[in-house]
Design goal:
single chain, about 325 residues, mainly beta, Porin, about 55% strand
């Protein structure tokens, strides 16, 4: 019992980390990372830090992916308005002693935008921007009650133009720039049920209680070269904001209903709340819904048995409009083998 109290106390001590930074507004590097590209976490409002028990966990809490028992290939796509797109491909494999290794590629593109000068004249050229994240994730459950994970990322951003002229009416446009960076995400997952005597939690109304904590964007920063733009006297840098997220999840109604809550703190921004749930029927069909910082989300999933140890899972999610940007639709396929 003393050990249980100690762990709960440590969790409480970690929660204030969510409010270390000042509240502010404005854009920042890697802002697209706040948008989910995987349907299941998107459908439950992004409350996934204390779940992360599948390939999507690589995007949320790397500590959770050690729960997989089969290799899984994942491909997902987020259909967005304003000529934007997001995609995700990964292969996740269980390794020895309750551990897992994952390789993934995440992509986001903005499409083409016409370049205009200060007078609103079309300069006859367009600009687009693409970002890529190539990642290696490793996770291990070191004890029955604690799992740890890390994600090493190579981030690449390209901005380029096509056609026209770069100068008109003394308005300079410099592009064809690119930058890259290395980033690290660290995660922890506490399996609360394992802190109690085996079988004690089975008679309780809530089971499989988990608490997660993640630190994102450690060391991530885009550094631009002044050689790409002669108007700059020094090379600017776009620093990725530190993001700390804590979450809790549990199952109820004979483990058919999964409920999760996350609190996310982005540097210089207010804390955002994410909440959602998933109801599974016959362990094949899933209904999901949630609130992502006030945005309504919903979705569903279904598993097809393709023979011994082979499963194909289809997931779909819907996210309502953010600031009149239009609603998004997410599609995902997972092949377990």
């Amino acid at each position: 019992m003393k050990k249980t109290i100690l762990y709960i106390y440590l969790i409480i001590l970690c929660l204030p980390l969510l409010s270390l930074a000042e509240v502010g507004t404005g854009g920042y590097a890697g802002a697209y990372m706040k948008l989910s590209v995987e349907p299941r976490p998107a459908a439950v409002g992004g409350a996934y830090i204390a779940i992360s028990d599948d390939a999507a966990g690589q995007l949320y809490n790397p500590a959770g992916v050690s729960a997989i028992r089969h290799s899984v290939f994942t491909s997902s796509y987020r259909a967005m308005t304003l000529d934007r797109s997001m995609g995700f491909v990964s292969i996740l494999m269980p390794t020895r002693n309750k551990s897992a290794l994952g390789l993934s590629w995440q992509y986001v593109g903005s499409g083409s935008v016409d370049i205009r000068n200060n007078d609103g004249d079309n300069m006859g050229t367009s600009m687009s921007s693409n970002e890529h994240i190539f990642s290696i994730t490793f996770s291990k459950q070191f004890t029955p009650f604690l799992g740890l994970g890390s994600k090493l990322q190579y981030l690449l951003k390209d901005g380029f133009s096509s056609g026209g002229t770069a100068t008109k009416r003394n308005f300079d446009v410099i592009y064809d720039n690119s930058a890259s960076s290395i980033g690290i995400n660290l995660g922890a997952l506490l399996f609360v049920d394992s802190l109690f005597e085996y079988g004690t939690m089975e008679a309780k109304p809530f089971n499989d209680i988990k608490v997660g904590l993640v630190f994102n964007n450690l060391a991530a920063e885009y550094k631009w070269s002044s050689n790409d733009n002669p108007n700059l006297s020094s090379a600017p840098a776009d620093k990725f904001p530190y993001i700390v997220t804590g979450g809790v999840s549990f199952k109820t109604f004979q483990r058919n209903l999964l409920v999760a809550l996350d609190l996310e703190k982005v540097e210089k921004r207010a804390i955002s709340v994410k909440f959602g749930g998933e109801y599974r029927y016959n362990n094949k069909f899933a209904l999901r819904t949630g609130l992502d910082d006030g945005i309504i989300t919903a979705g569903l999933g279904y598993q097809f048995d393709l023979g011994e140890n082979n499963i194909l899972e289809f997931d779909y999610a819907f996210s309502s409009a953010r600031v009149e940007e239009g609603s998004d639709h997410l599609f995902g396929f997972h092949f377990k083998f």
